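FAQ: What does a multi-protein file look like?

Like this. Sequence, then tokens, then the next protein.
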Amino acid sequence: MRLYALALVALSLVVSATTTLAAPKAELWPRWETHDAESTATIDHGRYDAFLQKYVAPHEHGPNGVRYAQVSDADRASLGDYLEAMQQIDIARYSRPVQRAYWINLYNAKTLALVVDNYPVDSIRDIGGGIFTSGPWKKKLLQVEGEKLSLNDIEHRILRPIWHDGLTHYGVNCASISCPSLRAKAYTADNLYAALRANARDYVNSGEGVSIDDDEVTVSKLYDWYAADFGNSTRSIVSHLRQYANPGLSARLDMLSRIDQYAYDWALNDEADLSE
């Protein structure tokens, strides 16, 4: 009887752990809808931009890497200062484009800080979780306008439900090889939409986004987890991929009506590993 009870407990924990890996739904936190459409004010992301330009290693035919091992104590402190400054901002006073750039930068900067503070790690999923949980995404790690926020709050309760174009997924970075690459520049209201569309093109045309081998189509798990953001059907996902695919890939996708499998590599986007 004791063994049976232990088995039930173990099974419930495994089920719970599996459930935590499912992608959260986009559920709006209404207080973050407030904005000033007439505002021309901007936010200075210069300190974060300098960090990215120094430590992000762009790769033309693969995911960008981050030189985590090389981050100096001074730059680590500077990244922390940037995060502190961003949390003092009254974001409701800004326009929508400024807000979107702010939230994506805040998410990515905090993710970088988490990895730097815990480095070396094999995967971001090794940070902040227990034996039956995974990753730091649910923890309240930030505070804006008096509200404690998790990374999940930013992505799934602010960014995705306010901006419905699916491009958020090409902006927020989960520090993993199969995630759309972290840019070597900060987002701003002026560069935001062009940069997100460029990210989408880069990702879709990379092996991490789509690969076709002997007519077998493998697509990033991103499009499975967040199918609702890409039309919620295989046809709509393929249509989205074709929108950003180069002519050769688009032609091949045009002849296919299925996705054979989804894949995702959670290994850290560590330049020390990518450059080997």
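And here is the next protein:
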Amino acid sequence: MTVYAGQGDARRSLALLWGAPEEPRTGRSGPKPGLSVDAIVSAGIAVADTEGMDALSMRAVGERLGRTAMALYTYVPGKAELLDLMHDRAFAELGPLGAPPAGAAAPEDWRDAVTAWAEALYACYLRHPWVLRISQARPVLGPAELAAMESLLRALRPAGLDPRRLRGAVAALWQFVRGLAATTAETRAAAAATGVADEDWWIARSSRLAELAPDFADRFPLLTGLQSATGGSPEDSHREAFRTGLAVLLDGVAATAAAPPASA
């Protein structure tokens, strides 16, 4: 089920994302020492990483911290705001990526910078697959999320795309990484979610398909040839698809940059 970001109070969410809010003062009737926004966000990520998005709640986060859910509301208004903070914290792991090499860099070095960005984003999604459940229709607008976009733009700048083509390239690259990461994450989770191992699933259906369509290779020769040319585990297959697909996209970016501007 898709989760939409930015569902909490805009004023408080953005303040938590961009500022350094003053921690509540503790007293006899106040919250216990040791609790903080940072600790709550870390606990929320731990819950989502280990138990999944569906298990995330203020109560679950409080239990991980040894607190009640009510104790968290002094620091974070609710689950919606917490989710925004968790999302941006995950993107903060990317760091300052996308800068072309310093000095006398060759014009094609932008490809290495974009590849490094894509590799880091792909790995981030797989470390935190719950992030893939959060829709991109409404961005969180946190500093780390926007820094990730800025890094990609910085990496692509030497390619020399005009603004319209640059927007298309950014969308294609981001959605490619996100989409393949989602497929990889779902493949990893499929056996546990369904109770059927991947190998058993394929064996059962392949044998049945052979009975129902004995002329499969004649009907689908190109697909059969493609399947014969690939091998290894699903994880290896996804990794190879990532490498080759990214290379094709970057070839397209280079060709687009070299093409004359389209007429209005």
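Q: Is there any per-entry metadata?
A: Some entries carry free-text notes. For the entry above: The mean pLDDT is 89.
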